[in-house]
Specification:
The chain has 913 residues and is α/β, with parallel strands linked by helices. Helix content is 62%, strand content 7%. The strands form 4 sheets. A 5-stranded parallel sheet has the order 8-9-10-7-11, sandwiched between helices. The chain has a 3-stranded antiparallel sheet with strand order 1-2-3, with no helix packed on it.
Length: 913
């Protein structure tokens, strides 16, 4: 692809390499064509540009010669002859002046659309295209001077767009120096003085702001003989009156994204990083695959790329590790979860992710995608749906999708490999470079290992035991040559297999057995799980950590063990060769079945800790289900999936919950008790997804089989689901019957908390049929069982607020709703917080405060989109009534403004991690 750069001295590049065009008249001809890209420029116009004072008789012939010279430099197809003229073909991103125009316009639109982060990124990218005055080589020629002046003027405008975006982001302190410089460099631009005064005012420097306006007025009067325009005058008046509108709100579309912190400095790779930074910032590049052999350092380079390039993207950079994801269909859901995108019942993970990314300018790194390469079309589709998303994937295999740019990562240069070995050895207090001879030994080791970073690091770790000389001797014995295997073998088998083999051969038998058994884990493990599943002890695990074969990380106050995927795969081969795989997988399944069934995901006292523990080991639990289904053990798959149903519910993974529970259940897994527990779980997933028919059918099956299977708690929950379905259908009598049965079972089982829940649900039913006294009685009973500051009371308190609201006791209702909101937001119970906010909107409507109602409705809508939840009929009625009243009273424009204010007000709470 040819790239023309005219924002400064002329530069032409072909596939990134410079194309030299030095002859003055040939250069002028190219400029004349580039001023009208993809248009036919008459030969007469070209001649006037080249010879402005006198066109020679031989001009036609000379133009043909110059065009031939351009074609020789640029390619035969670069310039087309059309009739009596010529046309230069320029790609959509092939001319920097056009790119600048588009980015500047897009940035201004982003700012007016309320996305200043994107506006700032685009303004900076647009300004970064400039290398000097526009059309510097021909700026004073008659054919180019007007366009040069236009571009230079737009550059000054764009330089002002950058502080506009900074001000919209609330960065008034940081932008003041840049604005002072703008005023000094361009003192006759009125808008610069306005921006400076506004920034100073927002810094609580009112007198300085007024002084800046005074200086600006004097400068304009002296320089142009003109009084300042209305904008400057109105700003001065607003500052004098301290108008509240001067303090703009600060929208924030950034995701709360955290890049993993590298454990050590990156050695080398400066050239590769520079090339990759340039690649990901190109307008025409949206998907980059960093390919290379296992152990070549793809992950580390990608992480450094994200850290160093994130500032060039309006919403930063994110890093998603896919090594533990085994099912390609879960890739987009895993990405969504890492980015904090909540799946809703109305959209697929792909749709939710595309919606979330639609307005974001983001660099997204997907690490280790090769084992789920079937998801590549989904990833490519995501790029198409999100116009400002750039994806960098690391993979041992090319994805082979449209728009992919492949960047092969070669082994380290020998100098960097030696430095890597020496620094890693020194970090272990090993003297690796005491003399020249030893340096030569290290160089030979690195060459023998093809200078692959992982292999070099493993060798450096082993030098603690053997020293470089003996290490080289062992390598000579065990690695005849690397990279000489069959060409159709996987890359890691041609590069790292022997390296890993000699590394594991140096382990003791017990250490090697432990390493092999660790390969059955997915996504790492706790120390306790590793000890139990591998039948090992902390000393053996510590030895593997010291050998750099196992990684130790601390997260959330607990220690996790993991392996690089390349090492894990090699360890899995060792496990298979030892004939130990089935036993290790069985121990893994036994451990995690007991693990998940012992967790209490129901009690508020233990819920947060239990959720965190499942979060850490969800990949292991998924693997247990997958392996069980693969070998036909649907009973185990059903046990684990059913035990996870509260987790699926709380994390909004309704579809995964339905599929993992429903699969084995529909295949006839489990005895009667297991099937009743599965029915309890599956019916709840169907209900959350809005599938009332399936929810009722499964729940009734649980009610039928549960009593004889000693599964009364499951029967109790199934009655509640049937009741909810009946209530949604308006069958209140049937709903009450099932809730009363649920309450009776809870009493018989001694489940006090479920008795209160049933009583609260009966209160909701009473409210639905208009029996306010019955509803109040039941909710007051529930409240008597709770501490009023316990978040568990919010369901009953919501009920009391609803009764008070219907009875016209607006102060009482507002007090209850406000308390529910505070308690729920503090605990992260977004569904209850949403219902409280809807209630407050209804109270505001009844008080005639439609502006407050509109803000509350905006917040409620944002929370509903976050959680994917749905309002029950009564709350939906309040929501719709408040919406209609506010829209009528305020008008579309004002209503939309206040609604947006509520939508962006995320200060109270966020979705749970």
């Amino acid at each position: 692809m040819l790239e023309y750069r005219v924002l400064g001295p002329l530069e032409v590049r072909c596939e990134g390499s410079p194309v030299l065009i030095t002859a003055p008249k040939v250069k002028t001809l190219l400029f004349a064509l580039l001023l009208r890209p993809n248009e036919v420029v008459p030969a007469d116009h070209l001649m006037e540009a080249i010879w402005p004072d006198h066109v020679p008789d031989s001009a036609h012939k000379l133009v043909q010669v110059y065009v031939s010279q351009l074609r020789a430099a640029l390619g035969a197809d670069a310039i087309e002859t059309v009739g009596q003229g010529y046309r230069v073909e320029v790609a959509a991103t092939g001319l920097d002046a056009q790119r600048f125009d588009r980015m500047r316009a897009d940035g201004r639109r982003a700012l007016s659309d309320g996305n200043p982060e994107l506006a700032l990124a685009l303004a900076r990218r647009a300004l970064a295209l400039w290398r000097g005055p526009a059309l510097a080589d021909v700026a004073y020629e008659a054919f180019a001077s007007a366009e040069a002046a236009r571009l230079d003027e737009l550059r000054l405008d764009c330089a002002g767009d950058e502080p506009d975006a900074e001000l919209a982001l609330g960065r008034h302190e940081e932008v003041v120096p840049a604005l002072r410089r703008l005023c000094t460099e361009n003192p006759l631009r009125e808008r610069s003085w306005e921006r400076l005064a506004l920034a100073l005012y927002r810094c609580d420097r009112q007198s300085e702001a007024l002084d800046a306006l005074a200086v600006g007025r004097r400068t304009l009067l002296e320089g142009l003989g003109l009084e300042p325009g209305k904008g400057l005058q109105q700003l001065e008046l607003a500052i004098l009156n301290q108008n509240p509108s001067l303090h703009a709100s600060t929208p924030n579309l950034s995701a709360t994204l955290h890049l993993p912190a590298p454990s050590s400095a990156l050695i080398g790779r400066l050239d590769e990083l520079e090339q990759l930074r340039h690649l990901v910032q190109r307008d025409d590049v949206r998907l980059v695959t960093i390919s290379g052999a296992g152990g070549s350092g793809k992950t580390r380079v990608a992480l450094e790329l994200a850290r160093s390039s994130g500032a060039a993207f309006g919403n930063g950079a994110a890093f998603v590790e896919l090594a533990s994801v085994q099912d390609p269909t879960l890739v987009l859901a895993s990405i969504a979860r890492e980015l904090g995108v909540t799946e809703t019942s109305a959209e697929t993970p792909a749709d939710a992710l595309a919606r979330w990314l639609q307005s974001r300018d983001l660099l997204l790194v997907l690490d280790n995608i090769e084992h789920v390469i079937e998801s590549a079309p989904d990833v490519a589709r995501l790029v198409q749906l999100a116009p400002r998303l750039t994806i960098v994937a690391t993979s041992r295999r090319v994805l082979h999708v449209s728009g992919e740019h492949v960047y092969p990562l070669a082994p380290l240069p020998i100098g960097d490999a030696i430095r890597l070995f020496s620094e890693r050895a020194t970090a272990r207090h090993i003297s690796a470079t005491t003399d020249v001879d030893r340096s030569e030994v290290i160089a030979t080791i690195c060459r023998r290992l093809d200078c692959l970073p992982l292999a070099v690091e493993l060798a450096a770790a082993r030098s603690a035991t053997l020293g470089p000389e003996l290490l080289l001797e062992r390598l000579s014995d065990r690695v005849a040559a690397l990279g000489v295997g069959p060409r159709d073998a996987p890359a890691r088998q041609q590069t790292l297999l022997d390296t890993l083999r000699w590394s594991t051969d140096l382990l003791s038998e017990a250490e090697r057995r432990t390493l092999a058994r660790l390969s059955v884990f997915s996504g790492g493990s706790s120390v306790e799980a590793a000890e139990a599943v591998c039948a090992t002890d902390i000393e053996l695990l510590a030895a593997l950590i010291d050998s750099s074969l196992v990684q130790r990380t601390a997260a959330g106050g607990s220690i996790r063990l993991s392996m690089l995927e390349t090492i894990r795969e090699h360890a899995a081969q060792l496990l298979g060769m030892a004939g130990d795989r089935l036993e290790a997988e069985a121990r893994h399944a036994t451990y995690y079945v007991a693990f998940v069934e012992a967790l209490d995901l129901k009690s508020p006292a233990t819920q947060a800790d239990a959720l965190a523990r499942v979060d850490a080991d969800i990949d292991n639990l998924r693997v247990v289900i997958d392996r069980a289904e693969l070998c036909g053990d649907d009973d185990t798959a059903l046990r684990v999936a059913s035990a996870l149903y509260r987790y699926f519910y709380m994390r909004g993974l309704f579809r995964e919950g339905r599929d993992r529970i429903g699969g084995p259940l529909h295949r006839g897994a489990g005895d009667a008790r297991a099937r009743a527990l599965g029915a309890r779980a599956l019916s709840g997933m169907h209900f959350m997804l809005g599938d009332l028919e399936s929810a009722e059918a499964v729940a009734r099956e649980g009610i039928e089989i549960g009593p004889a299977a000693n599964a009364d708690e499951a029967v109790m929950a199934c009655h509640t689901v049937v009741s909810h379905v009946a209530r949604e259908r308006g069958l209140f009598s049937e709903a009450k019957t099932h809730l009363e049965r649920s309450e009776a079972l809870a009493r018989a089982l001694g489940l006090d908390e479920d008795v209160i829940i049933a009583n609260t649900n009966l209160g909701e039913l009473a409210l639905a049929v208009g029996d306010l006294d019955e509803a109040r009685r039941r909710w007051e009973f529930s409240m008597s069982k709770y501490d009023e500051n316990d978040v568990s009371c919010t369901f009953a308190l919501l009920g009391l607020a609803s009764v008070a609201h219907r009875q016209g006791l607006l102060d009482e209702a507002a007090g209850h709703f406000t308390k529910v909101r505070a308690l729920s937001e503090s605990a992260g119970w977004l569904h209850n917080a949403t219902m409280a906010i809807v209630g407050l909107a209804g109270v505001a409507t009844d008080r005639g405060d439609h502006s407050e109602a509109a803000v509350l409705l905006g917040r409620a809508r944002a929370l509903l989109e976050t959680t994917g939840g749905e309002l029950v009929a009564a709350d939906d009625e309040i929501y719709q009534r408040a919406w209609s009243a506010a829209l009528t009273d305020l008008g579309e424009t004002r209503f939309a403004e206040l609604l947006a204010t509520g939508t962006t007000d995320g200060s109270h709470c966020d979705a749970p991690a």
